[in-house]
C-alpha cells in the first residue's frame, strides 16, 4: 500500500504547523535580505497525485522558476519549490537591486540564478530546520538545482526516478506578503515534498503519529 494514501488530516495539520514555523524563520531572513517586512505563511497542506502537481503549478506549458533539491540525512527525499515567473522576477529584482529585472535579459541570468539559489536555500533550509526540530531527525538540503523552464520539463526531471515507487506528493502551499508591496496580491508558490518511501514511517513515527503500512 502506498504510504501517502494512509495520511490523514492529523498528519497534514502537523505538517502545516511545522511549515508555518519554518515560514516564520524564512520570513525573518527574507525581510533582512530585502530590507522590507515580509510575512510568510502556509495556508494549506495536501496530498496530490503527480498529475495534479503539474496542474497546481499552472499546467505543463507554463514557464516557472524552480528550485529542486534532495533532502539528505535520517529521512531522505526530494523537494521542489516552484514560483510563477513574474513573481520570481519581482523578488530577484529586489535581491539584486534592479526593480526592472527580467529573465529575458540574457546577461543577467547568472546573477539572477545566484539570487534564486539564495532564495531556495532560505526557504528550503527554514522548512527542513523546522521539521528537524519537531522530529529530532537530522535533515538537511543538498545544493539546489535551479531551472527556468516549462512545468512539464521541470516536474518530469524531478519525478522520473520517484515515480517508480510512488504516485503522490505532499504539497505545501506558500504565501508571501510584502508589507510595503506595490502589488496587492500575495506571492504564491508551492513546495512539493516527496520523502522516499521508507522516510514516511521515519518522519511520522518521530512526530508520534502512526502511519499504517
- Please state the average pLDDT score: 79
What's the shape?
Answer: globular
**Unreliable residue runs:** none
Number of strands: 8
* Rg, alpha carbons: 17 Å
Count of separate DSSP helical elements: 6
A few lines on this structure:
The chain is an alpha+beta fold and 213 residues long. Helices cover 42% and strands 27% of the residues. The chain is built from 6 helices and 8 strands; from the N terminus they run αββαββααββαββα.
Topology overview:
Blueprint: H1 9-34, E1 38-41, E2 45-49, H2 50-56, E3 63-73, E4 77-84, H3 85-95, H4 109-135, E5 139-141, E6 145-150, H5 151-159, E7 168-178, E8 187-195, H6 197-206
Antiparallel strand pairs: 1-7, 2-7, 3-4, 3-5, 3-6, 4-8, 7-8
Helix pairs in contact: 1-4, 3-4
Commentary on this structure:
The chain is globular. Strands 1, 2, 3, 4, 5, 6, 7 and 8 form an eight-stranded antiparallel β-sheet that branches. The protein is an alpha+beta fold and 213 residues long. It is 42% helix and 27% strand. The termini are close together. A hairpin with an 8-residue loop joins strand 7 (168-178) and strand 8. Helix 3 packs across helix 4 (109-135). The chain has six helices and eight strands, in the order αββαββααββαββα.
Amino acid at each position: 500500500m502506498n504510504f501517502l494514501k494512509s495520511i490523514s488530516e492529523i498528519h497534514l495539520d502537523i505538517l502545516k504547523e511545522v511549515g508555518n514555523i519554518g515560514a516564520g524563520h524564512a520570513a525573518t531572513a527574507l525581510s533582512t535580505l530585502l530590507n522590507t517586512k515580509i510575512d510568510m505563511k502556509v495556508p494549506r497542506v495536501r496530498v496530490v497525485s503527480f498529475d495534479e502537481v503539474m496542474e497546481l503549478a499552472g499546467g505543463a506549458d507554463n514557464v516557472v522558476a524552480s528550485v529542486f533539491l534532495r533532502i539528505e540525512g535520517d529521512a531522505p527525499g526530494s523537494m521542489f519549490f516552484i514560483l510563477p515567473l513574474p513573481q520570481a522576477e519581482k523578488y530577484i529584482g529586489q535581491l539584486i537591486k534592479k526593480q526592472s529585472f527580467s529573465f529575458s535579459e540574457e546577461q543577467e541570468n547568472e546573477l539572477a540564478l545566484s539570487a534564486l539559489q539564495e532564495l531556495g536555500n532560505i526557504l528550503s533550509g527554514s522548512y527542513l530546520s523546522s521539521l528537524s526540530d519537531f522530529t529530532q531527525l537530522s535533515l538537511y538540503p543538498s545544493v539546489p538545482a535551479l531551472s527556468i523552464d516549462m512545468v512539464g520539463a521541470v516536474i518530469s526531471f524531478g519525478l522520473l526516478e520517484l515515480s517508480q515507487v510512488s504516485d503522490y506528493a505532499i504539497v505545501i502551499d506558500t504565501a508571501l506578503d510584502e508589507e510595503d508591496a506595490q502589488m496587492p496580491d500575495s506571492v504564491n508558490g508551492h513546495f512539493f515534498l516527496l520523502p522516499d518511501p521508507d522516510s514516511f514511517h521515519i518522519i511520522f513515527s518521530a512526530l508520534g503519529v502512526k502511519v499504517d503500512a
